[in-house]
Amino acid sequence: MTTDFGKKFRKDFSFEADYVPINHGSYGTYPNVIKPVMREFQDKAEQHPDRWNRFESKEIIKSNLKRLSKLVHCDDSDLIFVPNASSGVNTVLRSFPFKKGDKILHYQTVYASVDKTLAFLKDHYQVELVRIHLNYPLEDAEIIQLTKEAIDQEHAKGNGKIRMAVFDALSSLPGVRFPFEAINSVVQENGILSLIDGAHAIGQVSLNLTELNPDYFITNCHKWLYSPRGCAILYAPKRNQGFIHPTTINAAYKFHADSTEYSSFAQENVPNTIDTAPYLCIDAALNYRESIGGEEAICKYTHDIAVKGGALVAKLLGTQVMENSTKTLTANMVNIELPAFKTSKTDPEIMAFFLNKSIYEKHTMLSIYKNNSKWWVRLCGQIYVDLDDFQKAGEAVLAIIKEIDEQ
Ligand SMILES: Cc1ncc(COP(=O)(O)O)c(C=O)c1O
To answer: Could you tell me which InterPro entries the record lists for this protein (predicted)?
Structure first.
């Protein structure tokens, strides 16, 4: 067991030699020890496809869900596997029986695919979208206040109820922790169902779903938990399982007029014919995490390096880290303001320029975005990064900005 993390851990992963892996948050990655485990499951699937798909893989799926349920503290029969967070969010939003005029509360920091899923509901089912704008850095108390005000304002109109609130556990851009526990309480106290997009949560922040008691919670295991892609879980407590059906309906489908009618939930959510190997590697991912020191040690290092790395880059750029007075925003992702630059490029062009330059010339990935009328870059701590990776990322930012300025 070791907690002496940093660059030496690169050998446990498959990165190209000079790649600067400072953007774990987008796609995640998994340790090499999991590769033969996954391959073995895939081989088994071919040795006797019927036995595997009809019986054996199902048992291993169950045991992996059981292990995950211990990590996130919930009943394993309230968890199902889905391929990714987008699918999980779609499962809930596209099967929940919204009625014309129902309102859905959300924030402009919502992930792009989730935002479009909400647009789909508006276009097809005439739900109304209530959007709260978040200009960071914000105190948790300010987010809570904005949320309470928006709910009061909408309910005072008397023209339809907010049925559901969709919010992140940690948003993508900005890569910040959202006060999801407090917002969950606020919305539920107002009779609103909570759908938490925890795409970035598991493996980055500790979760106790029984205590949190969200109405729906989705989290990607292929981001911060080191499972192969795509592997995510959807949590739906039994009181809410009856209304939820997978986006791709299977033979077990049953209509339920009552949200608490959960008898077909597990069967409806048995995966169709796909490669379930990523789901089956949870055990191996958690074994690896235990072997290197466990959840607490991993999260401590990834958080500390993000905080230190963010400060280093802010100093290099002559700017500031996006943080509030109680320092709740930075978990393993840190956001640093970019220095001012002059350009005739549009915002999408600037983003595309950074994307291409950082990937193809700087051999890294710099996720930049605008919030509160400023440009920011999101950088990620991980067990395999050191401060000099942040230094390199900061230098790449400066070089790309210089190029933009000179064009
Ligand atoms: C907050 C958030 N939600 C949803 C997603 C979508 O995840 P996936 O591509 O695994 O569906 C992401 C991906 O980065 C995300 O950051």
So the answer is: Aminotrans_V_dom, PyrdxlP-dep_Trfase, PyrdxlP-dep_Trfase_major
